[in-house]
Design a protein that fits this description.
The complex is a heterodimer. The N terminus of chain A is likely disordered. By secondary structure, chain A is an all-alpha fold. Chain A contains 13 helices and four strands. In chain A, about 65% of the residues lie in helices and about 0% in strands. Chain A has a two-stranded antiparallel sheet. In chain A, strands 2-3 form a two-stranded antiparallel ribbon. The longest helix of chain A has 27 residues. Chain A is globular and about 65 Å long. By secondary structure, chain B is an all-alpha fold. A two-stranded antiparallel sheet of chain B has the order 1-4. In chain B, strands 2-3 form a two-stranded antiparallel ribbon. Chain B is built from 14 helices and four strands. In chain B, helix 4 packs across helix 9. At the A-B interface, helix 6, helix 9, helix 11 and helix 13 of A face helix 7, helix 10, helix 12 and helix 14 of B.
Chain lengths: ~350, ~350
């Protein structure tokens, strides 16, 4: 119990009733977390813009978006799971397994669209497996997904077998999902990311699922007593996360043309960092898609800017860790509480 | 304080279980987690012995012990942190940092034992960092150590510029490369660490506090236990232990690498969790479970290799074994997570 602070309702998911009121009243309802993220993003961008003439070019900004897209889509799924108070460590393993399944199907002659659909279904099924373990097996999400992570990564290993360089597609295969450009210049991954954010935002803000997700993350016991089918909604969040990761896996395959059994290994911690940076607490019940988007963008700008200013790659690890600790620390200090 | 009825009572009741009444009593209070782990271990030994003529030999068992020793030592520190309700995801990075510091000192001509001590002190210092961030910054341990792990790993890359530091096979072998009366030295260190951890958790005031804090920090706070202080201490212990393991790793491999042990946290954590320590709960479990969990995962790997299971099947099999183990444990207890 003590690892996870009891859910704090930072912000009502149902929209604020106090839209009007005196300045002081309104200041009280300003979302400081979101403001801090925007300031961080603007500050970082200003710094990198002054340090490198290439940073502010449209081509580079699109580049940041395209690179952040795959992680960003996975992060949306993870956000929904974490707002409901869960956790999914299998995200990158699912990405990898889905890419592998799809690639194998395409090489053996399945039509590309059918392979993609089967791959996506695999992602959903893997999410469902996680959901069942957590809701029926009553296993802590961290423990459950840490265990299934090996199975999903294992599926990729088994399909890959002895092909040391992964499963490669022909150069002209499966490019429609992420490699081709949209309307001439827009990178397709960026479009998918925006779409995923839109869907995630809509689900969390305007659907029953979204309302329940916040409520369950805030106080699952209260929900259970009031007749909310907690297990059902929790299960659905894991399926959504599996689908999002699966789609990201398809994009990765389309972008790189290769499915590789070690793909994105360890990136689940990076993605989790972006989500947490965006204001989703481990306890659930707070945060949202906009915060996650900002968190993903901040880490993306950091990576891109450091590369442009020829900062040694290794500094990124330090910067990422420091940003995570400082931002979460500031947030807890401001709330005057946190982990006890 | 649920731990007071763990395996100690199991052993005690096993010996006194003579009559049917005693047997029934024992069955009710038996430590099922521990029993199922032992059953799993025995089953594995039987299956692998039937499948491979090389499995059941002193030499192979010492080999398994030597392989899992370093992970096993780290797991002892992690166990203590988790019993007190915390988590330390920096262990892999701390091992890397300690081995790098020792390697650099040895390369620079420092006496080997001083370098070893410096490695452990590095671990201690990083433990202080984690403890401060968590108890003073009031940041959830998962987030805090996720952040500091990234920082530590990054500093390792920057300082070494991504280069390995080789100290040569002639030096620094005394800690973990040799054998003591035929037993690999690393294995001996592991046994020592386990004994020490067992002693601390079972027979000292410190151990009592760890269980109490993990069980209910709020109750401890109102009864005047200095929760933050003792929590801080668990991260010190975890840091020192990881630092020492890093030094052992250097002694075994003669190579300090900034890439070493990246992602090993999750493997070590898997052993601890298999041993019966859940996340978020704390307050229960113990060293014996961690030893069993670590050995089971190590033996599974060894047995699969000996019986010729293709390498690409092993990850999935390990995952299936873990899912079965944690599911059974959860179902038996009537489900922990709600």
């Amino acid at each position: 119990m003590s690892l996870v602070p009891s859910g704090v309702h930072e912000r009502s998911p149902f929209g604020s009733a106090d839209r009007r009121g005196s300045l002081r009243q309104r200041l009280r309802f300003v979302d400081w977390m979101m403001l801090g993220l925007v300031v961080t993003l603007v500050g970082l961008s200003a710094y990198f813009a002054s340090a490198s003439p290439y940073f502010l070019r449209v081509e580079n900004l699109l580049n940041i978006g395209a690179h952040g897209a795959i992680r960003g889509i996975v992060a949306i799924g993870l956000t929904i799971v974490m707002v409901a108070g869960g956790l999914d460590l299998t995200i990158t393993a699912v990405m990898c397994a889905v890419g592998m399944v799809t690639a194998e199907l395409i090489i053996t002659g399945t039509p590309e669209w059918l392979a993609a659909v089967i791959g996506l279904a695999t992602g959903g099924a893997m999410g469902a497996a996680n959901g069942l373990l957590v809701t029926k097996g009553r296993i802590q999400p961290v423990v459950a997904t840490l265990s299934t992570m090996s199975i999903m990564r294992g599926v990729a290993f088994i399909i890959e077998r002895d092909r040391a360089r992964g499963v490669s597609l022909q150069l002209d295969q499966f490019s429609f999902l992420a490699r081709d450009r949209f309307a001439g210049s827009m990178p397709t991954p960026l479009i998918w990311w925006l779409l995923a954010c839109g869907i995630g935002f809509f689900i969390l803000r305007y659907t029953v699922l979204g309302q329940y997700v916040y409520a369950i993350g805030g106080n699952s016991d209260a929900c259970r007593v009031s007749g909310v089918r907690v297990d059902l909604w929790r299960f659905l969040t894991y399926v959504l996360s599996g689908l999002a990761s699966g789609f990201a896996g398809l994009m990765l395959l389309s972008l790189t043309n290769t499915a590789y059994s070690q793909a994105a290994m360890g990136a689940e911690l990076d993605i989790m960092a972006a989500v947490i940076l965006g204001g989703v607490g481990l306890g659930g019940g707070r945060g949202g898609v906009v915060g996650t988007m900002l968190g993903t963008l901040i880490l993306g700008v950091l990576n891109n800017g450091m590369t442009l200013t020829s900062t040694p790659l290794y500094w990124q690890y330090i910067a990422r860790g420091a940003i995570l600790v400082v931002s979460v620390g500031l947030d807890t200090l401001r709330k005057g509480g946190g982990y006890r | 304080m649920k731990a007071s009825q763990s395996s100690e009572s199991t052993v005690g009741r096993l010996t006194s279980a003579i009559g049917p009444a005693a047997l029934r009593h024992w069955l009710r209070f038996a430590d099922w987690t521990m029993l199922s782990l032992v059953a799993m271990l025995v089953l594995m030994v039987v299956v692998f012995t039937l499948a491979s003529p090389y499995f059941l030999s002193v030499r192979n068992f010492l080999n398994i012990g030597n392989r899992v020793a370093i992970y096993g030592i780290v797991a002892v520190g992690l166990t203590i942190a988790m019993i007190a309700g915390g988590l330390d995801l920096t262990v892999g990075s701390v091992m890397m940092a300690a081995s790098m510091v020792s390697a650099m000192l040895i390369k620079g001509g420092t006496a080997e034992w001083i370098a070893a001590v410096a490695g452990c002190l590095t671990g201690l210092a990083l433990g202080v960092l984690n403890g401060l961030v968590i108890t003073k910054g009031r940041i959830n341990p998962i987030i805090a150590t996720l952040g500091t792990a990234s920082i530590i790993r990054g500093v390792g890359y920057v300082v070494s510029d991504g280069q390995n530091i080789s100290i040569g096979m002639q030096r620094f072998g005394f800690l973990a490369r040799g054998k003591i009366v035929g037993i690999p030295t690393a294995f001996v260190w592991w046994l020592l660490a386990c004994a020490l951890g067992f002693f601390i958790l079972r027979y000292t005031l410190l151990g009592q506090y760890f269980y109490a804090i993990g069980g209910n920090p709020e109750a401890c706070r109102v009864s005047g236990v200095r929760v933050d202080l003792w929590r801080f201490v668990t991260y010190l212990i975890s840091g020192v232990v990881a630092g020492f393991s890093g030094v052992l790793l250097l002694s075994q491999s003669a190579l300090g690498s900034p890439y070493t042990m990246a992602g090993a946290e999750l493997d070590i954590l898997a052993g601890v969790i298999l041993g019966g320590i859940g996340l978020g709960g704390g307050g229960k479990g113990g060293i014996l479970g961690t030893i069993l969990g670590t050995v089971i995962l190590g033996m599974l790997r060894n047995g699969m290799t000996l019986t010729g299971v293709p390498a690409y099947w092993q990850t999935a099999v390990r995952g299936v074994a873990m899912v079965i183990a944690v599911t059974l444990d959860s179902l038996r207890k009537g489900g922990g997570y709600r």
